[in-house]
Amino acid sequence: MRKQVCIIGGGPAGLLLSQLLHRAGIDSVILERRSRDHVLSRIRAGVLERGTMRMLDEAGVGARMHREGYVHTGTYLSLQNRGFRIDFDRLVGSSVMVYGQTEVTHDLYDARDAMGGDIVDEAADVTPHDIETDRPYVTYVKDGTEHRVDCDWIAGCDGSHGVSRRSIPGHALRTFERVYPFGWLGVLSETPPVSHELIYANHSRGFALCSMRNENLSRYYIQAPADDDAANWSDDAFWDELRRRIPEDAADRLVTGPSIEKSLAPLRSFVAEPMKWGRLFLVGDAAHIVPPTGAKGLNLAVSDVHYLYHALVRHYDGDDEGVATYSETALHRVWKAIRFSWWFTTTMHRFPDQSNFDQRIQETELEVLEESETLQRHLAENYVGLPY
Ligand code: RFL
Ligand code: PHB
Questions:
Q1: Which of 5, 65, 358, 365 could be a cystine partner for 354, CB 3.0 to 4.6 Å?
Q2: Is the same domain home to 59 and 189?
Q3: Is the CA virtual torsion 48, 49, 53, 56 positive or negative?
Q4: Nearest Cα residue to atom 32 of ligand 1
């Protein structure tokens, strides 16, 4: 088959890119390794920046988000069981949308299907070839038969364990990484959320986050050792630990119930440079990973898609400036989100080797934040998403 763009990976980045390209008259195919059921059952991000909302609207898939999502005009931070609010609306005149990545992915698949988009699922051995030439192609195996996609460009939207980044020669790739000595143990439960707004809690027992999906679906996380196992945690043990770490009034009204999902996610910061090599672009988690504390992963994938989409539209209009500068432009924004996520993670979590000095500095950082509108504005600006 011949396509203008071959997209590897059918997560939110790949789906959104193909949807936008289709609407601009540029044809693409998505090669996804997993089944659609698998992709649609992954529980991940929950917070959408204003730029992400705009992009979903631009792709024509924002209607259900506006109907069913929750606009949050602020968030709570807590230190040792006492919370204070950061008011995004007052500080920066903006807000975020709480709408699960699972739902975003659902809406994108529905839109792709409605437009007859080409998506190959359960594509095995997806391999990019000749990316340093003007005639790249991608091979894959489906139901035991090898297929070939000839294309102008390859978009590597295949997440952190995909094949795209590995296709860039080692001498050309530079990576930057920080691995944190803890993970997030997450629980999804069919209970009313403890708070209408998110609560990010710093506690001497470790970080906790209260989030939500809807009026009867809550998402909670607690910091746990990186080598812990979700199977070690009964629901009761999880609820007890969460209750200890969050503001007292929230702990008192927390409604608990059986978990319908429980998993441990490791935390790391990672960037691969450059994000373009020859005819291959890296997009989203394929190029960078952030710890979830700043809620930036999905949102960064969407801003990458924004830059790449406009670069490709310009290319087919005869202007190659956008494709030439994609990596530089995207990385400029990526590093700011990497910094914010690192800062927020470092400020909110307890580190195993933290000295009493480090701990006092961390507590003072949060006290200063509570007192300083300037610092709050900085946090708000980054949390709702830097403009693009
Ligand atoms: P994805 O979603 O990983 O999709 C990549 C797709 O590529 C497929 N694939 C391949 N296909 C073909 N051939 C191969 N060789 C392939 N290898 C992989 C995969 O099956 C998959 O379908 O990457 P994408 O599209 O770049 O999207 C990135 C986001 O999914 C990710 O950044 C966020 O989920 C991160 N994240 C959060 N981001 C936010 O913006 N806000 C949040 O609140 C937030 N919370 C989170 C998060 C991630 C979490 N976990 C589990 C990592 C909370 C958690 C707990
Ligand atoms: C979530 O609801 O899953 C969520 C919310 C905020 C974060 C991370 C995850 O920072």
A1: 358
A2: no
A3: negative
A4: 297
